[in-house]
Amino acid sequence: xxxxxxxxxxxxxxxxxxxxxxxxxxxxxxxxxxxxxxxxxxxxxxxxxxxxxxxxxxxxxxxxxxxxxxxxxxxxxxxxxxxxxxxxxxxxxxxxxxxxxxxxxxxxxxxxxxxxxxxxxxxxxxxxxxxxxxxxxxxxxxxxxxxxxxxxxxxxxxxxxxxxxxxxxxxxxxxxxxxxxxxxxxxxxxxxxxxxxxxxxxxxxxxxxxxxxxxxxxxxxxxxxxxxxxxxxxxxxxxxxxxxxxxxxxxxxxxxxxxxxxxxxxxxxxxxxxxxxxxxxxxxxxxxxxxxxxxxxxxx
Length: 300
Hints:
Blueprint: H1 2-80, E1 90-96, H2 101-104, H3 117-126, E2 141-144, H4 148-159, E3 167-169, H5 186-196, H6 200-207, H7 211-215, H8 224-240, E4 245-250, H9 252-259, E5 270-275, E6 281-283
Parallel strand pairs: 1-4, 2-3, 2-4
Antiparallel strand pairs: 1-5, 5-6
Helix pairs in contact: 3-4, 5-6
């Protein structure tokens, strides 16, 4: 019996020791699992806090960036907004000639076409254009292309109501095209200015044009580069003249070369530009938006 008791106690002791070992293993596994979950939860929270902080930072940065962009854009828009003419700048009103017959029939081979009926109506509309109604900002000199459609537009719109307005036939206002519709036919032009419109002084200017101008050769040859060179020469001449306000009647591509992409032109519209002392053309706001006294012409 004593031996059996010893064996039984030994077995019980081993069993107790083995249970303790199992409990230790289970406890270690539970602790590892628990610590793993805690680390996971803490990691998710830390990651969430980091993401939230990053989102808040990006939100603040975006708001600051948008505010800065808005301020810069506003300042740029103010700089780009047309400003009234400055005292040392010339004022030039650009007028596109009325619709001519080659535009009606879409035939650019017509020789020096005259205005169509619609073009004459457009020229009559120009007489009452608001941009030209202010008494102290009216043009002092009229510049017109030697083409018949421009000559008739100038006569109907401006010379008939203002017979004393000085007018210059300027070949620098020839377009860049070399088509027949963009070449002066001297016989037709003289007939228009003499018998039709009764403007012998303009007929004399037309007849006195350089041979190169009438034949579209040399400096008056077709081409965009030569057109820009002629307009630079014209700008220099205008800056040297004592008058301040000018009116220019020509084809659309000539006026577009002056205006660039700053504005749109149409047959019965008038747009005002300033010519700076450095020879730069810049668009002006509507004349009714100019402050009182701004843009007063020297001859008024």
